[in-house]
Amino acid sequence: MASRHLSRSIVMQSLYEWDFYGKKDGALNTIIDRNIQDFGPGLEDVTFVHQLADGVVNHLADIDTIIEKSAPEWPLAQIPIIDRNVLRIGLCELLYSNKKEVPPKVAINEAIELAKTFSGKISGKFINGVLGTVFKQLEEKSE
Fold first, then answer.
1. 6, 7, 109, 122: most buried by Cβ count inside 10 Å?
2. What is the value of pTM for the model shown?
3. What 8-state DSSP symbol labels residue 99?
């Protein structure tokens, strides 16, 4: 598994646990460190894991608002926890990452793959729909 894909998987698993247990302050870094140890021994760049998780947390309110607007028929609380956190990761990379490091299509494809791996094929389509909608809106704004 490629290093960045593994890093995203660790972030997703960590956000899932953090979200499941009520998003307690200070708990996410402990969860991340444990998951790096359990799932990513020898991972070359753990900085990316922390940067991505921090990006999601720092922009959580904005990201959740975008999810609610992009999937109005799915209240945030009704979106499965895995899908919700995959969307958060995808949107964080799509909106706030360096586009040279993570092009938008890579961010979308990585999120779809996470959904397929950890959730299901239908989730992959849902993730694609939401992120695709946001990407189209971004393109329209830049024109």
1. 7
2. 0.95
3. T
